[in-house]
Amino acid sequence: MAAYFGTSIGVETWTSRRFLVSSLPPPSHPPPTLVFWRTPPVGSYKINTDGCVKDGFASGGGIIRDSSGQCIRAFFSFYGDCTILEAELRAILDGIILAQRLGLSVLWVESDSTLAIHCITKGGGPWHIQATIRHIRHLLALDRDTITHIYREENQVADLLASEGWDRRCYHEYSSQDLPRRHRSLVQIDRFGLPTVRGL
């Protein structure tokens, strides 16, 4: 008799749970949207950067473009053993240093790392990144320069450069003339405002 009631309760419990699960609405996912890279205002320069960590080693890369979307200079670098947040911040710092070395001011920095941007603009983060954050803040004039988030799908040139830094394991710069063909193709896509699908 005890076995009978135990089986009955088990079936009822299973049936109730199945009903509850089947009655739940399906998980909602945002519909795919079209996103595209935006040129900076006339007289300013945009720096797009990205960090990369694979197999315990980090790299970064970035590109500086003018208000017409033309490449001014691009770079990649290998950072060795560090976290993804460190790589994102070091790529941002490298991009700013490069822009200032070229005599460029009124900068718009974009990164697809919301955490890196938050650490720069709001503070916080682990102790070992604080020196990099202070250096970035020292170089940026936040009343004149801008730092914002960009979706990964809009940041493909910087992503490609960061991966190249990991593959080649060195620091290197490209001028607009010697930018590789694949990089130039992505720059042209951005320059002409062609959209990329986000959310598929």
UniProtKB/TrEMBL annotation:
Q: Which residues form a coiled coil?
A: none
Q: Which domain of life is it from?
A: Eukaryota
InterPro entries the UniProt entry points to: RNase_H-like (IPR053151), RNase_H-like_dom_plant (IPR044730), RNaseH-like_sf (IPR012337), RNaseH_domain (IPR002156), RNaseH_sf (IPR036397)
| Domain RNase H type-1 as annotated: residue spans | 48-164
Cross-referenced PANTHER family, in alphabetical order? OS05G0353850 PROTEIN, PUTATIVE-RELATED
Q: What is this protein called?
A: RNase H type-1 domain-containing protein
